[in-house]
TrEMBL record:
Cas6b C-terminal domain: residues covered: 109-220
Matches recorded under Pfam families: Cas6b_C, Cas6b_N
Stored InterPro entries: Cas6b_C, Cas6b_N
Domain Cas6b N-terminal: 3-105
Protein name: DNA repair protein
Length: 223
């Protein structure tokens, strides 16, 4: 049984959704060692593994979630950035700490069920985007999304070098705020969902596409 450590740092710094990529770039620019975990590329090639440092907007403010090795890497930022200031686009912004949450979570299946919410989930790739749009029955649409969600969870576990041997069950209980967005000029379908599952997952971890810039944030609902 393996526990995954996570660290979510919330700053008292307002951040718009569109500013998350700028926030990510500002943090990367503040790291002199160019640690690959902060940006997932080494200048010539991409690190295609699950991002262990994720830049987010939580409660309308800037936040970073670190997973596994990313927790240790984050110490470098705080060791060299003692005044907690970054350059966000053309502005200099302070990063006063608001809250720090450390967790250790066993990502595994249990006999009980957990209630979760995912904000700004991007479940659809080019192939299943067309299938989803051509499906008019709401039950069939939910079935498509549930299969994708199980796949996302398995990809997350694989990215964290964890093997889930038990069967993951998910049941989507609510879908809201479905909207079309563009990210890097690519049209995407974004949505918020609530679901129940037999697997335990850490708070604020990302799932699905573009998790490094704040999409697909999971939070556990209070049962």
């Amino acid at each position: 049984m393996t526990k995954i450590k996570t660290l979510t740092i919330q700053f008292d710094t307002p951040l718009r959704r569109s500013e998350i990529p700028l926030f990510r770039g500002a943090i990367i620019a503040a790291i002199p060692s160019s640690n690959i975990l902060f940006h997932n590329h080494d200048g010539s090639s991409l690190r295609y593994a699950y991002p262990l440092i994720q830049y987010k907007r939580i409660g309308g403010k800037a936040a970073i979630t670190c997973i596994g090795e990313g927790v240790d890497a984050m110490g470098e930022f705080f060791s060299i950035n003692k005044d907690y200031k970054i350059r966000l686009g053309e502005e200099t912004r302070n990063l006063p700490l608001q809250n720090i949450q450390a967790q250790q979570t066993e990502i595994q299946c249990w006999d009980c069920k957990f209630d979760y919410r995912i904000r700004d989930w991007l479940p659809l790739n080019e192939k299943n985007y067309n299938v989803f749009n051509e499906t008019t029955d709401i039950i069939d649409r939910i079935n498509i999304l549930e299969k994708i969600l199980v796949g996302n969870i398995l990809s997350l576990a694989k990215g964290l070098s964890m093997n889930i041997s038990s069967t993951i069950t998910v049941s989507i209980t609510d879908i809201e705020n479905i909207r079309d967005i563009r990210y890097k000029r690519v049209p995407l379908r974004c949505m918020d969902i609530r679901f129940r599952s037999n697997i335990s997952l850490p708070n604020f971890i990302g799932i699905g596409k573009h998790t490094s810039v704040g999409f697909g944030i999971i939070t556990k609902e209070k049962n």
